Amino acid sequence: MIYPIHTEVLQVDPTHPEEALVQQAAQRIRTGELVVFPTETVYGLGANIFQPAAVESIFTAKGRPFSDPLIVHIAEQRMLERLVNEISPHAQQLMNRFWPGPLTLILPAGPRVSRTITAGLPSVAIRMPRHPVALALIRAADTPLAAPSANRFTHVSPTTAQHVLADLGGRVPLILDSGPCEVGVESTVLNLSTPIPTLLRPGGISLEDLRNVLPDIQLSRATPTAAAEPEQPVALASPGQMMLHYAPRIPTFLFEGTALAMRNALLAEVERRQHQGERVGVLIGDEDVAAFTNSGASLYSLGSTPEQIATRLFAGLRELEEAEVQAILCRSFEEQGLGLAIRDRLRKAAGGKIILVQE
Ligand code: TXA
Ligand code: MG
What we know:
Blueprint: E1 8-11, H1 19-30, E2 35-37, E3 44-48, H2 52-62, E4 71-73, H3 89-98, E5 103-108, H4 115-118, E6 123-127, H5 132-141, E7 145-146, H6 161-168, E8 174-177, E9 188-191, E10 198-201, H7 207-213, E11 218-219, E12 252-256, H8 259-275, E13 280-284, H9 289-292, E14 298-301, H10 306-322, E15 327-331, H11 339-349, E16 354-356
Parallel strand pairs: 1-8, 2-8, 4-6, 5-9, 10-11, 12-15, 12-16, 13-14, 13-15
Antiparallel strand pairs: 2-3, 3-7, 4-7, 5-6, 9-10
Helix pairs in contact: 1-5, 10-11
The protein binds threonylcarbamoyladenylate and magnesium ion.
The site of magnesium ion (MG) has 3 residues, from loops.
């Protein structure tokens, strides 16, 4: 593929996708092209999993290494027949409870799934998104779609078509624009291909909800939480756990501590950096806004509930990046529910630059 190519953007109704537009996109998939489509989590860059050249072009368009496996998206359980040999009772329970929705299951791969999709692993990642446009496209194309998030490799995932255009404009032929994504962080990735079910990436379905169905889920040691710090670097069970993932292009720092301690430390750091002539951006919650209004920093408030914070997180990182600040300072949030995924993405955005603050 020689870049740049022309990128067409089609507005598609998010709840009642126009049949003609869906057919147009499905036709592109059939002819081996890439289509960017909305999901409830983030926008995905899709190709027919049974067309090797199309799947390869996903990696080229994103600048993603072939060592990072892709998620296969399906619209009906019968599509699983083409992907896996059998479905364990645990997998079936989770599918019944959380599909369609933001849960990706890693299952032993059947023989028809290519090594390009699995990056040579014996397992395949599968999810059934709940976004009507994603489901309509998969059905119309009549094939499972391989789709990573539609951003340049290591950049922040896109939650609007404008984010996709900024990263992949001139590199993909078609973007279906259905407005902002509802959840805002990627799907939860749960490995069921090993003896103990393991959370590889916290995401749109909370660990608490998963444990209500399957109590003995363990945390991957590469999923840092306040409660379980990894003692040393470990071999990555999922290549997407690399710290570089999800990072804005501006140095980003994450402050952790009580709400008050974080706020005071952030204010002091804003002042220190501005004194040195730097422009600073801060990513905060609604409760912090008043304290920062006269600080001189560029502010982006994520809201107050975990749902709002998740929805606005990637847009906030991108907006501060666009504001051309020289540093982005973030506060962290509680780890309950969606909070685990929020903190995971903030830590990854900071690339390990975490500042623990005390009162
Ligand atoms: O919400 C989402 O999951 C979005 C939307 C588009 O569906 N997709 C997404 O894809 O986030 P991507 O490629 O950005 O992230 C897929 C993650 C990566 O961390 C990858 O390493 C992991 O899933 N993964 C895929 N196949 C795997 C496998 N067989 N074993 C372990 N991890 C796997
Ligand atoms: Mg991604």
